[in-house]
Structures are given as C-alpha cells and as structure tokens.
Amino acid sequence: MGPVRFSLTTLLTLTTLVSVLLASMKLLHPLGAWTLVLFCCAVFAHVAGNAIGSNLRDQATHGDGSGSALNPLPRPYPGKVNSNDFAPATQLRHRASLGKTIIGVTIFTMVAGALGGAMWLLWASHTSLTSAGLLFGATAFGVIGGLAGFLGSSFLFVLGHAIIQAQGKDKRKSKQS
What is the span of the domain harbouring residue 162? Predict the structure, then answer.
C-alpha cells in the first residue's frame, strides 16, 4: 500500500469539516463535543478499516496454488487437490435464528439495566433529580443493558454452536440465506 494521495479539493473539504467541527465544539456542552469527536473517530476508523481490508483482499491471490500476500508459501501439490487438503465445510455461513432465549435474556437485561440505573440515579442525585431526568436516565440504562445482554448472549450462543460443530456433534440444519 503506497502513500495516501488526495486532491486539493479533498484537502480543502477536510479542512472545512474540521473547522466546522471545532467551531461547533465552542457552542456545545463538553459532553456533546466529546460525543461529536467520538462519532468522527468511529467514522474515520470504519473508513480506514474498510480501505485496509479492501486493499488486502485485492492483493491476495486465490485458487492458483501460488500462495497469497498473507501466505506466500505455495500449496504442497499444485494442481492435485485431495479431500484431505481442506477442512470439512462448516455451517457457520448459514443464517439461523438465535431463538427465544436470546430475546428473553435481552428483555431481562434491559429491565435490569433500567431498574438498576434508576436506583443508582435516585441514590446518587436524589436532591436535584427531576422525574424527566429519572425517566431519561432509566431509559438510557435500559438500552445499554439490553445491548449488553443481546451482544453477550448472542456471542455465547454462536460460540457454543461453533464449538459443537467443530467437535462434529452438530445435527441441526439451518436455513440458507
């Protein structure tokens, strides 16, 4: 991957966007300013990761037996493919429902997060807390709890099925996408 190249128009557009970002930070609350900076960093990381991944994919060679940019060693017997050369096909590429357990865990962690967050808000700032602030805070804690519960339980679900499949004990059939 060579050096990054861009045109004068791109440079001026980027300079304008950074200037608008810095000017808006003067008007925003510090928390809002940091949220804006975090959003911009997330967008930058996404674009950079996409560019790096596309570049690595384009540099890799596929199927000619000569290796790739990531694995420069050629296959031991180019042209002869034996069934033992590759691992058996997995079912991980197939789409399957996560099931009612994941929904139940998500709802439980959402309710637990909302109740726990509301109790913490009442304890931490009981003198200056309004009912709207309590409702907003409980909702935010509920969303965070639900996301954490969904991500954690779905990760464990997929990990468990991957382990079962790796051991050769998976008998279920999933719907193809």
Answer: 94-171
Q: Are residues 152 and 126 in the same domain?
A: yes
Reported as a single tens digit per residue, the pLDDT across 52-83 is 888 887 776 555 545 455 555 555 556 666 66
Same domain as 99, residue 80 = no
Q: Model-level pTM?
A: 0.47
Considering only CA atoms, give the Rg of the chain: 25
Are 113 and 141 in contact by the 8 Å Cβ rule? The answer is yes
Residue 165: which residues within 8 A CB-CB, separation 6 or more? Answer: 90, 91, 92
Q: Are 165 and 91 in contact (CB under 8 A)?
A: yes
Three-class DSSP category at 164: helix
How many Cβ atoms sit within 10 Å of the Cβ of residue 51?
12
The angle formed by the CA atoms of residues 16, 21 and 22, to the nearest 5 degrees, is: 100
Last residue of a domain, one of 62, 86, 110: 86
The per-residue b/e assignment along 109-145, b for 16 or more CB within 10 angstroms, e otherwise, is bbeebbeebbeebeeeeeeeeeeeebeebbeebbeeb
CA distances (Å), origin 104, targets 83, 108, 144: 42, 6, 16
Task: Among 86, 115, 132, identify where a domain stops.
Answer: 86
